[in-house]
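Agenda item 2: NDP complex prediction
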Amino acid sequence: MKARARGMPVIVYRLGNQAGDRANAAWNPQDLTLLMLQGVLRSGQAPRLNWRLEFTPVDFTSEVIVRAMAQLSLHAGKIFHLVNPQPISFDLLCDWLSVSGYTLRRVDYADWLVELRQLAEACQPIASLLRLLEELAPSGGSQYFGQLSTFDSRQLRAALPSLGLESGYPAIESSLLAVYVARLAERGLLPRARRNTSGGALLGKVAMVTGASSGIGQAVAQALARDGCQVALVARRADQLEQVRQGILAAQGVAVACPADVTSRAEVEAAVARCRSLLGQPDILVNSAGVMYYTRAFSGLTHLTDRTIDVNCRGLVHTVEAVLPIMLDRGGGHIVNLSSDAGRAPFPGLAVYTGSKFFVEGYSRALRLEVASRGLRVTCVQPGDVRTPLQACRDDADSEAHKEFSGQGKYTMLEPEDVARAILYAVQQPPHVGVNEILVESREAPI
Ligand SMILES: NC(=O)C1=CN([C@@H]2O[C@H](COP(=O)(O)OP(=O)(O)OC[C@H]3O[C@@H](n4cnc5c(N)ncnc54)[C@H](OP(=O)(O)O)[C@@H]3O)[C@@H](O)[C@H]2O)C=CC1
Ligand SMILES: CC(=O)[C@H](N)C(=O)O
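Presented output:
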């Protein structure tokens, strides 16, 4: 500052936490973030902590400094804070570690310290971590983690394009964490992750499935996971999603629960953000969230007709619009929309439902024309009656219409797995093949 006051061309850099570089994860061995990572993975325990982690890959920091020095006249007098504008929560990091092949048990912070003390005798980094924690919080409490301050990095971010760093500040996301964990494990600094052994045709792909807590969505999520996809499970009922997730984990698959109501754009965007942080960018989106209520047009059940439009039409648009920029950016992706045979033919007792599925058809066809040249595929799956909770008649629906028009008990319905197989067929095709529509019905009940 004194040099600046005397008229010297000075740029001030104020650094936040520096993490390893993005190629090799070369990292200061005494850094708190690295030591915490080692403490968690060596103990197999994730302490409950209110901690937002902020760090910047050190190669980015050095790039900024070298490039800014080369443009001294442009940037002299500025203060650049190299502090990550988008920290992640420690909880999210632990969730990411869990889906990335590490088994972690949630414990209280105090119990974790007891475990670390036992490990410290045989493990140098754990001993260093305990020393550091003792310095930061001599009382042994975890309040320190909740008190971290941050700095405004707007001035730096505004300068990034002129520094030739157009891709912006490095986000703390799945791809960066994957590099760190892999490189550190190769050097023996972290234990190795358990690999996804399913080895299917879709290995390495990320799929987001709405309506994954029940019926067709659940069967599709399970089938995609069996085939190697990492799956983000979306629906409102978190407890149901957790059961589906546990089933997929037990079968050696990878899944995360992203609870959301698809009628809320904000909740859908948060679910997509969680998917990106924990699994990566979605390659496949399956829109299976939907409702079907028997309501003849004259039955006056407006709360059910409104709900049908909100979930089946608006909800689907919300998820498509949330993932589309990601897929367009990458020049690839596959959107699978659950339409219905009611998207091809009218069904009495289901006027609004039929209308909602005609919407899904029209929307999907126009969308396909808009994005096909950008590398994206859009598939409409049109099942006939499938044996799921959707076919039941709600107490407040039009029971007379259900009795007269529903297919229940009249023929053998499809099973959710029959629809899942059709969807798997569509998403397994080579990129130049577009399976645009699949009508799959009970043999006994063609439209
Ligand atoms: N079953 C059938 O005969 C046929 C079904 N289809 C279509 O297939 C799709 C799936 O139906 P199916 O599996 O049978 O039905 P289910 O009732 O078994 O499942 C519906 C799913 O949608 C989710 N859902 C409902 N509302 C919302 C919401 N607001 N936000 C997020 N998720 C929501 C439910 O989860 P939660 O309650 O936890 O939010 C549930 O996971 C639907 O689009 C349906 O129209 C098409 C043809 C035939
Ligand atoms: C009209 C229908 O019952 C259709 N099979 C559906 O459930 O979407």
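Discussion summary: The pocket of NDP (ligand 1) is lined by residues 210-211, 213-217, 235-237, 240, 261-263, 288-292, 311, 315, 338, 340, 383, 385-386, 388-391 (CB under 6 Å).
Owner for follow-up: CH.
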